[in-house]
Write a structure and sequence with these properties.
- The protein is α+β, with helices and mostly antiparallel strands and 198 residues long.
- The chain has a single domain, classed as Sandwich (Jelly Rolls), CATH 2.60.120.590.
- Helices cover 14% and strands 33% of the residues.
- The protein contains two helices and twelve strands; from the N terminus they run E-H-E-E-E-H-E-E-E-E-E-E-E-E.
- A six-stranded antiparallel sheet has the order 1-10-7-12-5-2, covered by helices on one side. It has a four-stranded antiparallel sheet with strand order 6-11-8-9, with no helix packed on it. A two-stranded antiparallel ribbon has the order 3-4.
- A hairpin with a 2-residue loop joins strand 3 and strand 4.
């Protein structure tokens, strides 16, 4: 699995709490919402976005759009610390245009999926985990293939690129009370993408 890269503890505690503070402001400007699948099933995670484009899902399908689905406003800017991680690990020339923010409360999970709503799969997807540890599952590019389980802890960065860019992956569960970073508990996952055409 060469296109999957895990950087355990890439962000120190200070960098993690700085990011949580930046996210608190983003969530005031762009409130968390609960998306539904095209079939009408609500996600167990709540979401919002920052960047020029944000990922949304509703009865009309999955897509990137430039405005919040509830407020109609443009998404807030991506924090500089995240842009720097992207420049270091994904592309130093082309910045990300979307950052999906997923909040996992009690019992939230994420089914196995591929990230395939982006225009150009030559760009990797970079993920930052904050708060409680998640049990992440990753397999190959075909549904139903062999998978393995990897723990994602607060401060870990992982990248899906190259041959694993379209690997199926998901979150089986989040381990309650495994981190003190987020007041009230829970987990935040950030995924940076180049969503639009280059
Ligand atoms: C999560 N992560 O960690 C879900 N997608 O909560 C993802 O769906 C993901 O970790 C693309 C690349 C890396 C990821
Ligand atoms: Fe994903």
């Amino acid at each position: 699995m060469t296109g999957f890269q895990l950087l355990p503890g890439r962000l120190d505690r200070q960098a993690q709490s700085d990011l949580v503070a930046a996210l608190d402001k983003i969530i005031v400007a762009a409130p968390l919402f609960t998306p539904v699948t095209p079939g009408g099933q609500p996600f167990s995670v709540r979401m919002t976005n920052c960047g020029r484009l944000g990922w949304v899902s509703d009865r009309a399908g999955y897509r990137y759009q430039a405005h919040h689905p509830v407020t109609g406003l443009a998404w807030p800017a991506i924090p500089k610390a995240l842009l720097a991680l992207w420049a270091e690990y994904v592309d130093s020339q082309v910045p990300p245009d979307a950052c999906l923010i997923n909040l996992y409360g009690q019992g939230a999970r994420m089914g196995l999926h591929q990230d395939r709503d982006e225009a150009d799969f030559r760009f990797g997807v970079l993920s930052v985990s904050l708060g409680d540890t998640a049990v992440f599952r990753i397999g190959g590019t075909k549904r139903g293939g062999k998978t393995r389980s990897v723990r994602l802890s607060s401060g870990d960065v992982c990248i899906l690129a190259g041959e694993d860019r379209l690997a199926f992956h998901g979150i089986d569960r989040v381990i309650s009370d495994s981190s003190q970073l987020i007041s009230g508990g829970g987990r935040i996952n950030l995924t940076l993408r180049k969503a639009g055409a280059p």
